[in-house]
Amino acid sequence: MDFELTDEQKMLKNTVARFADEQLAPLAPEIDDQARFPEENFKAMAQMGLLGITIPEKYGGSEADFVSAVIVMEELARGCVATANTWGAHSILCAENIYRNGTEAQRRKYLPDLISGSRIGALCITEPESGSDALSLRTHALKQGDQYVLNGTKMFITNGPNCDVTVVYAKTTPEAGQDGISAFIVESSFPGFSRGQPLKKMGVRGSPTSELIFENMEVPAANLLGEEDKGLRVLMSGLDRERIVYSIAPVGVAQAALDLAFAYARQRVQFGGPIIGFQMVQSTLAQIATEVQAARVLSYWAAARADTGQRVRLEASFAKLFGGQVGVRAVGEAIQIFGGYGFIKEYPIERMYRDVKGIEFGAGTNNIQKLIIIGELLKGMKPGL
Ligand SMILES: Cc1cc2nc3c(=O)[nH]c(=O)nc-3n(C[C@H](O)[C@H](O)[C@H](O)COP(=O)(O)OP(=O)(O)OC[C@H]3O[C@@H](n4cnc5c(N)ncnc54)[C@H](O)[C@@H]3O)c2cc1C
């Protein structure tokens, strides 16, 4: 068993860590305050080759393994989770999905622009009336000649306010339920596409979110992603990978909170000495550090198994459930170490407390992860260790 990163992975981690420390973290308070999309971060990620991290070089990607995608997500989230969320929606939920399920013509048409950052990507599953019960979606696609006509509304779409390309799930045969869903590549320039106002969120504010509204939207038949009525296959093809990537984001935030709490505890003096000298403060820090490392190992283990092509449904949900729980708990404990100062905006821990909650929901809530885990265990599936 080898828990070491390869030389390439270590180099990637150092590069993204430096970017997170030098550019993302200093800018994070401003993009949170203004709730603005960090154009400069997006362009920098394109230049660093992060937007198509797992996609083959022939489409402009970096052709790295999946563990590398987890490394990128962790380091981005440590610096600025809003930027990390935008990166995940663009690179993993949209671009990787088009690569995995697209025809050669679709790959050549969409991937180079997404990877160079000249177009912004998104993914549309959730609707106002269908969240966890995603397959009950109501958006409808009717084939008319050489195009489909889509009607419906998508909710909570990351990059919704500024996306150019999005993968959309819609019912092509509504009476067939989950076997009547299809996936489409939609461009924001298609007639009938419109956006709602950006949603005013508690956290992850630098990653704009909105509704997308489709009114008799005309989508060329050539933009069907995968086969008609086989959208469930498209959706399921990436869901475990998406869960693994999103499992590490709260861990990245928790690591940032731990580093800040550690430094603060060293310099904050009460009762004549730094508070890090008090055993109860030490206990809190030791507990956070342990949980963060345990969650990190779970995510990397799941990613390494995905890289070998093994089924990772159970591993992905273990990592997603635990990563989210540890993130929220760790940042909550870290803020406690700051006392009253943790509650004011001058200290970044206040933002992290709001942000970490916001990335817990994506790719299925904690309850949904528990349902998947128990479903797998009932089927007799066993974790790979
Ligand atoms: C910041 C942010 C960004 C997002 N980005 C995207 C995106 O880019 N694209 C996209 O498609 N979606 C996106 N989402 C949507 C996200 O995936 C959903 O919020 C999530 O799936 C939950 O759906 P819901 O909010 O409708 O909650 P609901 O499904 O209404 O759930 C409400 C509560 O009921 C619980 N619950 C539901 N069903 C069960 C059950 N069977 N058993 C036990 N408990 C249950 C849930 O766990 C939850 O606690 C985003 C959400 C947020 C907050």
Q: Care to count the β-strands?
A: 10
Q: Order of strands side by side in the largest beta sheet?
A: 1-4-5-8
Bound molecules: flavin-adenine dinucleotide
Rounded radius of gyration (Å): 21 Å
| SSE order, one letter for each helix or strand | HHHHHEEEEEEEEHEEHHHH
Look up the CATH topology of the largest domain. Butyryl-CoA Dehydrogenase, subunit A, domain 3
Q: Work out the strand percent.
A: 5-15%
Average pLDDT rating: 97
Cα shape: globular
Q: Unreliable runs, pLDDT <50, ≥5 residues?
A: none
Q: Per CATH, which architecture of the largest domain?
A: Up-down Bundle
Structural class: alpha+beta
CATH class of the largest domain: Mainly Alpha
- Biggest sheet character: 4 strands, mixed
- Number of structural units classed as domains: 3
Oligomer: single chain
Q: Between the first and last Cα atoms, what is the distance in angstroms?
A: 11 Å
CATH superfamily of the largest domain: Butyryl-CoA Dehydrogenase, subunit A, domain 3
Reconstruct the topology from this structure.
Elements: H1 7-34, H2 39-47, H3 66-79, H4 81-101, H5 104-116, E1 121-124, E2 140-144, E3 147-158, E4 165-171, E5 181-187, E6 193-195, E7 209-220, E8 224-225, H6 231-267, E9 269-270, E10 273-274, H7 279-307, H8 313-337, H9 349-358, H10 366-378
Parallel strand pairs: 1-4
Antiparallel strand pairs: 2-3, 3-7, 4-5, 5-8, 6-7, 9-10
Helix pairs in contact: 1-3, 3-4, 3-6, 3-7, 4-5, 4-6, 6-7, 6-8, 6-9, 7-8, 8-9, 8-10
